[in-house]
Each structure stands twice: as C-alpha cells, then as structure tokens.
Write a structure and sequence with these properties.
The chain is built from nine helices and five strands. With about 200 residues, the chain is mainly α. A three-stranded antiparallel β-sheet has the order 1-2-3. The chain has a two-stranded antiparallel ribbon with strand order 4-5.
Length: about 200
C-alpha cells in the first residue's frame, strides 16, 4: 500500500512515512474521489504551494488506490483504532526533556527502504531487468527510493503529461520562480487530476 501511495502521489519516501490516518478523506467537490493533505516536503517553501492532492481509483484492481486503501484501513484501524500515522502503529517516544527519543516516521522510512532492498531489489528477478543505467543513476547502491519517483514521473510523462503538470502533482518547487505562477490558482485541480488519472493503471 505504501508503494502504491508513493506512486500515485509521486511522493518522496520521507513524505510518505509522515502521512497521518486523518489525511485521506472524501473530496468536497468530486464524490467519486478522495483527497489527501500533502505532507511537508523539503522542496516546498510555502504552505500555499501544498494544496490537497486528489486520489482517483484505477480500473486495474491491483493498482486501484481507493480499493487498496480501503482494504488496508479496514484491517489496520481494526487492529490499531488509535493509530496516528497512516503506515505505522508506532508513535514517537519522548525523553524527560521533551526531545524525541524514538521517531516513528524515521524508523518506518528505514524499515521501508530495508524491506524494499530485501524483498525486491536484491532478488534475481529484479536484477535480471535492472540495467547498467539504473545502477549508475542511483550511485553505488543501485536502485533506491528515488526510483519510486522516477517510475510514476516517467509513466505519466509517457501518458502525455507535461513537466509542469508533473511538478504540480509532485508538489515540487522547480518552477524557477516564474511570475506567472503567482496568478494561477494554487489548487490547480485540472492539472492535478490529469496526472492522477494518467497514473491510474488501466485507466481512471
């Protein structure tokens, strides 16, 4: 579910682990969709640049974010009704001075990457399709969590989405400070929905 969530939002692993249980909710304008609060990114400097992202269902059950999220939450919330984070039942632990002694989100990020390396990246089946360019692009460690942004970005681009639309969906700030963006509605629902639809494997 985390991998699909990251794919659908073109998110960073660091942002993905910080999503909270209350972030995904019904969309106020489109009853067939959900929306989710955007977790803060190191590439974003203004809160107005992080409007909610739309979540659409896919025709392919294996890639349907709405269906997979529903199945996940039904079992997850039943077992952890007071959960804070969306993808881990653990919570932060503080020391006597009020400092974080155990950071649940950071621990989840490390576990997530470790499990991907063990279960996916290190398998012979994966190595058979990984080429030299993949290994060079990610450095000496081979494919990494940045690949989880490359895949949806490339996938949506091949479906006709522009680089500007991809920046909007990924909530990236790489727009060069161009003045025009001050006068475009910050929500940019059309562009966000267009890329979300392109990321729906099998069609939205």
């Amino acid at each position: 579910t985390m991998c699909l969530w990251q794919f659908h939002l073109i998110g960073r692993a660091d942002d993905t682990v910080h999503f909270q249980v209350g972030d995904p909710r019904g969309h106020d304008k489109y009853p067939f969709a959900l929306k989710t609060k955007v977790r803060w990114s190191k590439n974003v400097f203004e809160e107005r640049q992080c409007p909610d992202q739309i979540l659409l269902g896919s025709m392919d059950d294996n890639f349907c974010m709405l269906q997979q999220l529903a199945i996940y939450l039904e079992s997850y919330l039943d077992a952890h009704p007071n959960a804070f984070y969306l993808f881990t039942e653990r919570v932060n632990e503080m020391d006597g001075a009020g400092n974080i002694k155990y950071d649940a989100a950071i621990n989840l990020k490390n576990t997530y990457r470790r499990r991907l390396a063990q279960v996916v990246w290190s398998t012979n089946a994966f190595k058979d399709i990984e080429d030299e360019a993949d290994r060079q692009n990610e450095g000496t460690n081979g494919v990494g969590t940045h690949s989880h942004r490359k895949l949806p970005t490339t996938y949506a681009s091949n479906k006709g989405c522009t680089s500007e639309e991809l920046e909007i969906r990924g909530r990236w700030r790489n727009q060069g400070g161009r003045i025009v963006f001050r006068y475009i509605d910050v929500k940019q629902l059309y562009q966000d929905a267009k890329v979300a639809a392109a990321l729906c494997v099998g069609g939205p």
